[in-house]
Amino acid sequence: MDARAEKPETNISEAKKEVSVGQSIFLGLQQVLAMDLFIPPMILAGLLSFSVPDSALLIQMTFIACGIATIIQAGFAMKLPVMQGPSFVPLSALAAIGTTSGIGAMIGSLIPGALLVALLGYPMKVFSKVVRKFIPPIVAGTVIVVVGLSLMPSAINSIYTAPGNFGENIFVAAVTAAVLIFCMYIGEKSKSKLKYIKVVSVILSLGIGSLVASFFGLVDFSSLGKSAWFQMPSLFAFGAPEFDLHAILIMAAIYFIVTIETTGTWFTVSKVTGENLDDKRLNGGAFGEGLGCFIGSFFGGTPVTGYSSNAGIIAITGVKSRKPIIAGGVIMIILGMMPKLMNLIACIPGVVINSVFAILCVVIMMNGFKVIKEVAFTERNMLVIGVPIMLALFAVLMPADVLKGLPDIATYFVSSGTAIGAIAALVLNLILPQKLEDGVKTNEVTVHAN
C-alpha cells in the first residue's frame, strides 16, 4: 500500500462532477445496499447471545454510527467518496470483552482507542508517516488473510451448533451459500445488466435462505409486532460505558489493525476517482475514522472502516462525486431510526447469517492473497506471511479450558486471532532483515477486506 504508487490516468474533474439531489439519493441508496452493514452487528449479537430485540437495537445503532461516520469522512475530514461500515476485525475481541466483563466494558473499550486514532491524524499529523513506515503490502495483505481466516471457524461452528435439526440447518446453510456464490459469479462474469446482481447478492441470499428456513419453522417474526416504526436514537443504548484497562489496551491494538484495513480502501478509492491521496488526506482520514468511531461508540455502534466494495460501485456507475456518499450516510441514519426494519433483519435465522458470513470470510481471505501476490516470495517474506497465519490459528484453536485460565488481558488478546496475527506480521516485517530481492514486484496494491 504505497502512497507513492503511480497515479491513475483519470480525469480528476469527473470526481467533482455535479450530481442532482435525486441522483444523489438514488446512488446513495445503491451504495447502502451494497454494504450489507447489518452482517457484523448480527454476528456480534450472536456471539453475545443477544435476544432478537437487543440484536435489532445493536443493528439500529450500527446503522446510525456508520451514517454519522460516513458524513464526517466524506463531508469534511478526508473529503473522498468513502462509505464507512462496521468492521469485521474487532468482532472476536468485542465478544470476549462483552462476555467476560460485560457490555459496559465493551462499549467503554471503544472510546479511548477511537480518540487515539483521531489524534494521530490531527493535531499530531503523524498517521501518514505510520502508514509509509509500518504498513507495506506484505503486512496489509497478511492482516487481511488473518482477518478472514480467524473469523471463519466462528461462522462454521455457529452453523454446527445452531438450535434445531442438524440436517435441516446444514441444508438451509448450503442453499444460502449456493445462492450467494451463484449471484457473485453471475454478477462478476456478466456484461449485461445482470452484473448489478452482485450488488444485492448478500440480500438475495439472505432472503432466499430465510424463505427456505421458514419451511422448517426456523423464522420467528413475533418481535415485529412489538417494535415501533420510527424511534429517535438514544445515547448509550446498552448502558453507561465502563472503563477496563485490559479491555482498552486490546481494543487500542484492534484499532490499529482496523486502520490497516481501512487504509487499503482509501488507496482503492483514490485510484478509482483519480484523486491524490497525499499526507493531508491520510491524516484527515485518520481523524475522520477516529472521530466517527468515537461518536458511534456513544450510540453503541461497533468500530467503522472504509468499504472498498463501494469503490466498485463508483467504478461501475462512473459517478465520483461525494454527494451520493453523503446521501448514503443520511439514508443509513434514517434507516437506523426504523426499529421495525431492524427487527425484521434480526429475525433472519442465525444459520442463514453464518452461512453468508462464512462465504464473506473466504472473500476477505482471498482478497488478502491478492495483495500478497504482489510481494516477492523469498524465504524471509514467506516467514513474514506464514508465521502470523499460524499464530492466528494457534489462538483461534486454543481449547476453552486453557483460555479460561489466562488473565483477562491475555484472554481478550488470544480470543482475537486477528490481533495476534496482525501484530506478528508487523513485528516480523520490522525485525527480519530485508534484502533487495524481498522487495515488492509492483506498487499497485489496492485490495481491501470488505
Automatic annotation (TrEMBL):
Q: Does the keyword Transmembrane helix apply?
A: yes
GO molecular function (one) = xanthine transmembrane transporter activity
Q: Which InterPro entries match?
A: NCS2
A family per Pfam: Xan_ur_permease
> Which Gene Ontology CC terms are recorded?
plasma membrane
- Kindly state which keywords UniProt assigns to this record, in alphabetical order: Membrane, Transmembrane, Transmembrane helix, Transport
Signal sequence residues: none
TM region positions = 32-50, 57-76, 96-122, 134-160, 166-187, 199-225, 245-267, 348-369, 381-400, 412-432
Q: How does it sit in the membrane?
A: Multi-pass membrane protein
Taxonomically, which superkingdom? Bacteria
Where in the cell?
A: Membrane
Please state which protein family the record places this protein in. Answer: Belongs to the nucleobase:cation symporter-2 (NCS2) (TC 2.A.40) family.
Designated name of the protein: Xanthine/uracil permease
Its lineage opens with: Bacteria, Bacillati, Bacillota, Bacilli, Bacillales
